Amino acid sequence: MKDLMYFIAKLYRASGFRLVLNITLVLVISLLEGLGLYLIIPLLGMIGLLEQQAWNDWPLVSGVQTLLEGWFTELSLLLVLVLYVLILGGQAMLTRLQSLLSTRMLQGFIRRMRMETYEGLLYARWEFFLRSRKSDFHHMMSNELGRVNQGVFLFMSMITAGLFTLIQIGLAFWISPLLTAFVLLSGAALALFGRRYIRGSKRVGEQTTELSKYYFAGIQEHFSGIKDIKSNRLEPFHTSWFARLSRQMETNFITFGDINSKSQLIYRLSSVLLIAGFIYVSIEMLHTPAEKLILIVLIFSRLWPRFIAIQSQSEQLVTNIPAFTAMRRLEQELRQEREWTGGEEENKGKQEKLHMTQGIQCRGVSYRYKPDSPVYALRDITIQIPARQMTAIVGRSGAGKSTLMDLLMGLISPESGEVLVDGIPLKEQQLYRLRDGIGYVPQDPFLFHESIRHNLKLVAPDASEEELWEALRFSASEEFVRSLPLGLDTVIGDRGIRLSGGERQRIVLARAILKRPTLLVLDEATSALDTENERLIQTALESLRGSMTIVVIAHRLSTIRNADQVIVMEQGAVIQQGGYRQLAQDRQGRFSRLLQEQTGMTK
Ligand SMILES: Nc1ncnc2c1ncn2[C@@H]1O[C@H](COP(=O)(O)OP(=O)(O)OP(=O)(O)O)[C@@H](O)[C@H]1O
C-alpha cells in the first residue's frame, strides 16, 4: 500500500491542479446525480402518485420547491421535466469533461514514468547492467509499467466511486438516518468479509509478477538463441518449458477469476437479501412512508453496484501492488546507480572534448565482478597507455583483457588503486570528457535497424556526404556499401539487409573514426575480417599513428605487429609489458610462447 501511495503522491506532484479539478468535478457530478434522483419526488407528485405534503418536511426538496415557486407561479410537469433534462444533461457533459481530464492526467503521468525509467536506465552505470538481466528491463518497461498504469487508473476510479458513494449516502442519511445506518452496517460487514478475497488477490498478483518475469526472460533468450535451438534440435525442450509456464499463467488468471467472481457472487446474493430485509424492516418495523422508501431504494439500487465495483476494483488493484513495489525498487536503484550526475552541459555532451597529451595510467588497480568473490578479474595492475601511440593487450581467453578495456573507458571503477587520464583521476568531469572522445569497436558490433547513413550520423550528426564516404573508405567498406541497393540509405538489420560479421565490424569502425576520437578502442575488432580486409585496415590504422591513442585487443598476434607497446595478461595480472620486438625476442616470456603457438597453428 505504501508503494501505491508513493505513486499517487507522484501523480499529485505531476498533475497538481488537474487532480484537484478532477476530484471536484466528480463531486459535482455525484451531487447532480443525487439532485436528479430527488426530482423524482415532485414528478411523482405531478402525476398524482404522492401527496404534496409528503415532501414538505424534506429540507432539500422543499427548499428547491420554494425557490422554484418564487420564479414560477405553478410547478408544471413540463417545468420539472425541463429541470430534470438540464440537471442530468449537464451531468452527462461534465462526466465527459471529467473523463477527458482524467485520461489526459493519467496519460501524462504514465509518459513521465516511462521517460523517467527509460532515462534512468540509459544513464545508469555500466556495472548495473552487468548485474542485471536485460529481459527484466523489457519486462519493467512494458508489463510492469502497464500494470502501474492500470493500478493508478483503478485507484482513480475507486476514488470516483468512493466520492459518489459518500455523497449518495449523505443524501440518503438526510432522508432516513435509520435506514441508511442499517444499509451501511451491512455494507461494512460485507467489506470486512471481503478482506480475505483481497488477500487472495494479492498473492495472485505476486505470482503474476514472477511468472511474467520468467515469460519475458524466456522469450527474449530463446529467440536470441534460436539458431542454437534449431541446430541442436532443442525445440521440444523449449516447447515443454513454454507449455509449463503458459499453464501456470493460465492457472494464475483462473484463480484470480475464481476469487473475483466468488466475491461478486457473495456481494450480489447479499444485496438481494439486504434489499428484502431492508424493505421488510422499513415497512413492517419503521413504518417508513412510501415516497421515502421509493427514494431510498432508488438511491441504494444505484449505490450497491458501486459497492460491488469498489470491492472488485480493490481486488484488481492489489494484484497490481507487486508491480508498484517492483517499479519503486527499480526507481530507487536507478537513482543510486545514476552515472551522469553532472550538470546539463555534461549530460548533453557539450563540454570540451578531451585532448589527451600524456595518456592513461593505472596505478595498482584491482577489480572484482562480485565484491564477495575470491576471484579478481584484475589484480594490482600498474600500466601506462601513452597518448598518440598504439598499445596492444594480449592474453589467453579469460585473462582480463576486456575488463581492463572497460576500466580504461571508465565503464567500471576500480575496487582499489586508481585510473588517471593526463594525471587527473578518471571521475566525474574527466570521465565525461574522456567518453566523449572514445571511438569503440567491440568484437560483436551493434548496429541499429536503420539506414547505414543513420547509423554513421549517430556519432557525427553534422558529417558531410564526403566525410561519410571517407570514413567508409578508411574501414575498407566503401566498395560493399556502394554495391548495396540503396547505398548509404540501405536499411540494415533483421528485416533489411543482413550484413556479415566482418561487414558490420567495418561499418562500426567507420563510425568510430567519423567521431574523430581521442581514444580509439578496438576489442577484437578485426576478428571477423578476411586477410585482405584485415591488411587494408591495418594500413589504415597505421595512418592514424601519432594522431590518436589506440588500444587494441587481439587474439591474432599478427595484427599487432606495429604496436608501440604490448601488454600481456594472465589471470587478471599483467605479466609482461614492452615493445613487440623486445617481447618476441624474450624466449622465456609468455608472449613469445603465445607467438610460437600461433605460428605453429598456422603452419
Ligand atoms: N559480467 C561478468 N560477471 C562476472 N564475471 C565476469 C564478467 N565478465 C567477465 N567476467 C570474468 O572476468 C574474467 C576476465 O574476463 P574478460 O572478459 O575480461 O577476459 P578476456 O581476456 O577479455 O577474455 P576473452 O579473450 O575470452 O574475451 C573471466 O574470468 C570472466 O569469467
TrEMBL record:
Domain ABC transporter: 360-596
Localization: Cell membrane
Keywords, ordered alphabetically: ATP-binding, Cell membrane, Hydrolase, Membrane, Nucleotide-binding, Protease, Thiol protease, Transmembrane, Transmembrane helix, Transport
Transmembrane residue ranges: 20-50, 70-94, 148-167, 173-193, 265-283
Residue span(s) of domain ABC transmembrane type-1: 20-319
Protein name, per record: ABC transporter related protein
Membrane topology note: Multi-pass membrane protein
GO molecular function, one term: ATPase-coupled lipid transmembrane transporter activity
Primary localisation category: membrane
GO CC annotations, alphabetized: plasma membrane
